[in-house]
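Case study.
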Amino acid sequence: MWENRCKIAVSGVGFSKATRTAETPLAAHALQAVKAAVEDSGLKLADIDGLATYPELPATGHAEVDGISIVSVNCMMAMLKLPNLTWHIQTGSVNIGGAVQQAVNALLAGVCKYAVVWRAMHNPKGTYQNLPGAYAAGALQFTGPYGFGGPGQGMAVAYTRWLERHNQPREKMATLAVTQRRHTQKNPLAYFYGTPLSREDYLNSRMVAYPFCLYDCDIPVQGACAIVLTAADRARDLKPTPAYLAGYGQRLHFEVAGRIGSLSSYMAGGSSSAKLTWERSGFTPKDVDVAQIYDGFSASVIYGLESYGFCKEGEALDFIQDGRIELDGELPLNTFGGSLGTGRIHGLWHIIEGALQASGRAGDRQVKDVNVSFVGASAPIVQGTTFIFVKEPY
Amino acid sequence: MLRSIGWNKLNDTIVDYSDKTRETITMSDWSKVTRPIPVPNEWTKPFWESAKKNVLALQRCQSCRHFQHPPYATCVNCMSVDLKFEPVAGKGAIYAYTIMYHTGDKRFVAAVPYASIIVELDDAPGALMAGNLLEAEYTEAKVGRRVEVVFQKLNDDFTLPQFRLAK
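After joint prediction, the assembly is written out as follows.
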């Protein structure tokens, strides 16, 4: 087990109100989320001495403009003018989970006391994946000429392989979309709060990239969320009940840059990251009371459930049936609605919900008697990160 | 509902996937699609030069004999830097696929729906190549189905390796 288990905790969390279009500059969303997280902790902005983010804009073919389409650490520093800042970083790989893990490491090293991590996501005007124009350079030269230029194709091709190898119908995924949308109705900050989804809606929806229909894809939004991390003994003196970090893992698994995502890469990335998390925390999948698994595309959840070890390969679409992922089920899943419910804010919201469930602060959607709360914060293939939060330090 | 579609009228058709009873399936119409032109780099140039001569050649490690695609600076199997391009037979199986209905690249809208496939060649296990399934209805794309390479000329400088169902 990890000697640093339960030494770091999540304290406050904060959000901006996500909108479909970018009426408010992204920097304002990030600032609102950060201020809300600090306030939730009961801290003052001047207490914050560590900053971390993963600023990437996943929409391709659009310019990265600081404050408008991304919010860098520099941008946040300029807005906050923190008098006591001692540590800051922005990560370029393993997604926002990597930034959270860097903040954990900085806190363990003692180079800062209260770190804030935020993720701000921009929805540009026009086509989200604006690919690739008259010429296809770099890795795109082997995909762009074939019209591999739309949403989620790397996910979609792995999904057809999964479905046909395991002889499973895509219609079973309706249960995930419908259950998560039901969870969404208990999350007033979610984009699809107030918009229910029926099984028929899912089955009749238009195809985007077979096997993905519209409701297999999260909707791009403009929004941000943030968390405050600190040492466990400091967290106990703050306003919210802490969620203790029992262990984490990360693994980037991409054999060759530009290679199209193979199912085996998804599985290898997920299992490597989860293995570290199980070993460090001392828990196993059977110990988990509630799970948040990244769902930018629905199939990510399938790869996650299997590669993290919650069920065997080929069984995930059966695993999610029969009420198992409901709030009172055997493994309540994506209890905040997931990205399919909140809109595309990437994995930080999954981490936040994992912490809220562990600290008993999830409100109407709180799962009963949670101690072990699992998070898979990003799609395993390119940037797998996993976390376990607990209520009771051990 | 799906309006009636003829051989070349797909562009005018709103495809409603939910209409499971549709009777007419047609081939994707590639005639109005202007494909992006590949921009080779120092690693990939031999691939495109071979393709121009209607030869499919993949990067092969001269040390451990492993084929890889896309081309890379080192052998992903044994880390050797001794890499050369060698012709392959161009027969293989569909490893995975997707049917594109909503394409981010508007230049491909005329061909929707179309099959984008990933092929694993018999000669080069693990080296996954992208392509379209040509000369067949897009519904013919299935994991494991046998395919063979065909060459599609883009312009005087570039020819695209593509795939069709194996004869």
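Observations recorded in class. Chain B touches chain A through 48 residues (CB under 8 Å). Residues 10-165 of chain B form one domain. We will return to this complex in the next lecture.
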